[in-house]
Design brief:
single chain; 4-stranded mixed beta sheet
Amino acid sequence: MAKGLKMFFARQSKNDNRLVSISAITKDSKDGLICEYCDANVTWVDSFVRLGRTISPYLRLGPNQVHSVSCKNNISTAVEVLVAKSTNVEDTKDIFLSEQGSFIFRMNVLLEAESDFKRAKKAYEDESDSEARERKSREYKASGRRLSNYFNSAAGIAKIWERIEDSSDKKLLSELVTIEFNGKKINWNDFFYDESRYPILHRKGDEIEHHVAIAFTVKKTSKHIDTDSSNFYAVEGGKSNSPLIKNQKVRYVPSLNAHTDDYFNNLQEGDELIIIGKPKCPIGEPWRHLIYKKLKFWVSNEKQLTKLSE
């Protein structure tokens, strides 16, 4: 039986169906919770440790419960809602294509929009004529909005995947949404990487041609790095360790980097994020028994990151 998505909001049936967030639910108010969008009973899942990091509390369906067909916590409906939101009159291309009851996520559209944005930005910055600069400013801003829409769609579909617990629901989503790049199908495992699959992502590294999505937990909030050769802001993610190999432990360290702090100023320690981008995968100098392998994501658009609970 499909279980639906992890939930972070619920209604309190004993309190006039008042909507509450997971952070506002106490031990005394865990009973009588129902889905935010339908009348299915939901239960609290307390925090627990996985791969050395603490997973925040969330809500799941109660025993023998099912979401209504139209509920937004139902996998099929969640996909349909996302596709509907991803259709924008300003977009020149649809990032989702409908095909006989399922959808194709077109990765090329995202990469082409990113290239268009970079060209429009450079053309605007290089233009000296005032009238031409105004026109190119409008083109630059429009290309930025399109790129944000596409990043938002990519993050949205990755967020649905990460919020699924049940393997049958994973199978359903992979049947509902096919990822395509350069005319070829991309396996979901080649698009989304949780903490357990950081080693695989690092091994593939620069060979990856398309954007990927990763699960990222904020370990340390934004820090300004200002040296003779670098000036940027960095957010450190939770480390993932591999088993000892020849008495050495490999530690994978994800980070977000940007030239402005605007993308990071609302992040807090423990926030669980979905990140869209292309990673850089350097290997740090060994230190005693540790080998550090980094997963660096450069952020240039606010829609490249989204909180799992929002």
